[in-house]
Amino acid sequence: MINNLYYNSDDAPSFGLEIDNDLLASALASIYNRDYNPRKEIDPDLFRGVVDRLDEAITEGIADDGPDTAFVDALRHSAEVFAAFKVHKAQNDMAARLLDSNGRLKSFEQWSNDVQSIASHQFGPWLRTEYDTAVIRAHQAAEWQRFERDKDVLPNLRWVPSTSPNPGADHRIYWGTILPVDHPFWSRHRPGDRWNCQCSLESTDEPATGIKREDAVDPRKDGPHKGLGDNPGKSGSLFGQDHPYYPDSCSSCPFAGSLKNRLGMRFSGKKKDCNNCRQAGNAIPDEEIERRKRNRVKYRELKNNPEWSDVEYDKRTGGLRAQHVGHITHDGPKSERFF
Prior knowledge:
Helix content is about 45%, strand content about 10%.
């Protein structure tokens, strides 16, 4: 589904991993060892790897325009929500392959080989495409804020032709169109409403041209791609919530909680708004909570490992202390090994 959405093909382009290899290896080990419940929780390492890339994209995209802090914070939060659903999808697709056809747990080597295609797609070409599009979307969001500020002086926008070597014909008919900033056309058609689109807008005081051949577009075929239907400059959202990573409804959300809570959402007619949802926000890994969780897991591991002694976990601070057997101690602050 994602290949067809991003590339209009069953095949993704060839890109290497967009996250650290060691990070991915650690995440695979956590899934295999069942250090957390992948149906309800988010792997913190995978989450941080994806969020870091999207944060880089936002920083790159807004570099020249510098919108206000609150708007940038909204973009970054929406990136966290997007990353949470992306990682949840990836980790569950991988966890679903833990057992063989007889219901027995596969060896780690076999399983990690079996899920290599999922990991390489999710955190390779797909994440690369999401990164590239996030740069464009963040730039367009910051630009739109400027268009709104300057529309008294530069009241119109011009659709600038794509810089792609293979531009899509569906956008070509709009190249050169000039319309007011507030014209409803920009809510129906916009540069950037296609994955990998490289068209853009520029502000101008030149007279409007009117709409060029909008009747030639079939909205069923030529509407915005999933995940790109909203204007990020107005919504403050890096990607739209119709992207396939997101749930179809609140009641089908993996972070919705108990069955009672899900049923309540279904019958109350709650409108999906993932970026402002408490349940989605609670699912985003908190770095301090995750540090404590990792240390508790490591504590149990070292406590049962004869190569380590004096293993202690501080419940108050979440700190972990242990000493390797045979480790030469010295007086001073570095006499113990901390994690």
